Amino acid sequence: MNKKIAYVSITEWNRKVMRWIWISIGLVIFIQLLLFLFYQPVPECSKREYLDIFVIKPSIMIVMYAGCMELIFRFFGEALGGYVTTILFLLIQFLLLGTVVAVHSSVPYMCMILTYPVIFANVYREKIFRYAAFVICILVYAGITYGFIPSTEFRPDNSREVYLIIFVGFTIVAFSFSKVLTSVVVNFEKENQKIYEENQKIHEEKEKILEISQRDSMTGLYNHKMFYDKLNEQLQLCSEEYHLSLVIIDIDNFKRINDTFGHAIGDSVILKIVSIIEKNMDDKDIAARYGGEEFGLILTGKTEMEAYNVSERIRREVEAAAVDGVTGRITISLGMLEVKPGDKNGILLFKEVDSALYEAKQTGKNKTVCRGWRKGDNAEYSYQNFSSSQ
């Protein structure tokens, strides 16, 4: 019974239908009593006979039908299952309305109330209920029309008041049904909002998990894997118009810092250097913690000399920085290069920059070594090295 439909569960919708049926039965009996009060007896049908034919018998029948629906819903619905219960609901609804149509066959277009269950069935997601309602509706009408379902033989002369009462009565029934549908739409909107909020929460959690998986837990910079992913993305954009430079930074004598001052102080040194790196980067630049004390920078839109100047600013600021608990200077070594437009292999480029970093380490540390390939703006490209030192 938990099968979902377009707006609510089958159980919840059938409960709403059941409530609407009982309200409608009350209105129908009230309308029949009003019609009885307006009826003027004729020799063919006395007032007492009219009460019996048009009020008592049909009222008993429709209450019995509704009682069957209630029993099925309350006591047998779970055992029968949502599909069978709903088909039986539709069938009994047509029998109930068919009784009203057959009794009041003298009223033109009374048969149109048989379309109510067809409208009901459109709320269900499964097409089988809509098709079942459509077929049953036609069969019941055909049964009344061709006499398979007996209708009242006596056809009273209906006055304008009678038609008005019937019209107003069934308009009220339609209005009550519209309230049921309104509650369904409200439930649907609430459910949609709930689903949307849950999806948003799931999406945000996934984004958060993804972000965590891409970041170094201590520094918040991208991790080793993301460094290569971002580098490969940027390499696809690199051209004569879109410059790209790559920088690798390594903290000098970091093992000695850890051994001398402790790992907690070593972490403070890393965080201090990260803050300096971030301060000297643009929003579009990319920084990653490549290893324990190594950092990779992807400087977007920067030429060789622009990237060199950024590297030097970082180096000088680190050299001038003080970290609580550390005596003496903290220095870094840097290797860098500007990417050629045709270079698309991130691993080979990193090896080239790493060799520049190795040269900086081997030749005194605290310097930037650049693997340059430009002589000048108008000159032929050639390979050259240049470095800075303290």
Describe what this molecule looks like in 3D.
The protein is α+β, with helices and mostly antiparallel strands and 390 residues long. The protein folds into two domains: 10-198, no CATH class; 224-388, Alpha-Beta Plaits, CATH 3.30.70. 61% of the residues lie in helices and 9% in strands. The chain has eleven helices and six strands. A six-stranded mixed beta sheet has the order 2-3-1-4-5-6, sandwiched between helices. β2 (286-289) and β3 (294-300) form a beta hairpin. α1 (10-38) packs parallel to α3 (82-103) and α3 packs parallel to α5. The longest helix has 55 residues, at 160-214. It is rod-shaped, with a radius of gyration of 42 Å. The relative contact order is 0.08. The model is unreliable at 1-7 and 375-385 (pLDDT under 50).
List keywords for this structure.
single chain; 390 residues; alpha+beta; Alpha-Beta Plaits; 2 domains; 6 strands
Shape: rod-shaped
User: Mind describing the biggest β-sheet?
Assistant: 6 strands, mixed
Radius of gyration, in Å, reads: 42 Å
Tally of contiguous helical segments: 11
Q: What portion of residues belong to β-strands?
A: 5-15%
Q: Please list the strands of the largest sheet in the order they lie side by side.
A: 2-3-1-4-5-6
Strand elements, count = 6
Low-confidence stretches: 1-7, 375-385
Element-by-element helix/strand order: HHHHHHHEHHEEHEHEE
